[in-house]
Amino acid sequence: MHLDIVEGKNRANGDGSESPEEMMQRLAQEDNQPEGDVISEIDRLISRNEATHQDLDDDNLSSPDGRKKHKGKVTKEEIQAEIMNGIQGIGEYIMKSTEAIVKAHNSQLAVPATEIWDVILALNLNPDMEMIAYRFLINNSVEVEALLGCPLEKRKDYLMRILPR
C-alpha cells in the first residue's frame, strides 16, 4: 500500500490539491510560457478557488501596492531627542524622590538617644517602665516630638497614655 501526502487547499476532499512534484512541474511550465498568458493564469487561479471574478477587475490585475502607512526612517537626531527626554524624565523622578526623602527625614525630630534617656529619667518612672518608654520613644520620633512639646508637669501623664500596654 502506498500513501500519498496531499498538500494545498482542500486537502480533505482532494479538490485543488497539489503535490510537491506537481507544483514543480506547474512552475516549470509557467516559466516556459510567454508573459502575456494572463487568461490561462486567471483560469488556473479560479479553478483552484484562489481568485474570484470580483477580484479580477482592472485595478486588481497587478499586485497590491504598499499603500499602508509605514513609519519613515527615524533619524539619529530623533533617537537622541527621545533618549534625552527619557533621561530627563528619570532625572526629574530622582529629584522628586530625593525631595520626598529629605522632607521625610527633616520631619523626623533629630533628638539624640541620650537626650531621650535624660527626659525619661527626669519623669521619675519605675525602672521597668523606663526601658519600655525608652524603646518606644527611640522607634517613634513623632511621639518624642509630641512629648517634648508637652509642658513639663504633663509629660509623665502623656507618656503613660501613649505607651503600649
Automatic annotation (TrEMBL):
It comes from the Eukaryota. Residues 1-76 are annotated as: Disordered. Residues 1-12, 41-55 have a biased composition (Basic and acidic residues). This is Uncharacterized protein.
